[in-house]
Amino acid sequence: MMTRRSITVLGVLACGAVPALRSQAICRQPSAFCADSRRLMADGSGQRASFQRAVVHGGKWLTAAGVVALIVVAEREHSNSRREWNALLDICRSAQDACALGADGRYVRGDAEQLYQRSRAFDRRANRWLLGAQASLLATTALFIIDLHPGQGPDNIPYPPVKVGMRIPF
Predict the structure, then answer these.
(1) Does the model's pTM come out above 0.85?
(2) What residues does each domain of the chain span?
């Protein structure tokens, strides 16, 4: 049985293990190398554009893996919070006045108050990890949009796109 950590590691490795094969490259756009590895451009502008495109293309997968990793960490923090909360509920169910609140709004029993505070701390951490995952998801979306090539198909498919449609009469 695979654990969540090993699934996450395999996902990250899978994202990094899918580079474009050189034999599939078609030289539609200026790039530093073509399918036969001949040098196409000698000036730095083509290299810079090619490097920027590679950073965007690879960065979108890196940020997507970051989303997954941040969600996994947030889930772990939430599980810790639930564990502490369930322990607090066990204390509250143990006696009638076990979860009595003082005048300041805190639990009278020290162990109950400690479990409550720890549960809240884990929840706050989980929320922060989820906010990070959302920010990373926004970055991933932006990178996917930036990496689009309007009017072109993928570089490794030599056929033009086929348009399929359907009419529904009313």
Answers:
(1) no
(2) 48-148
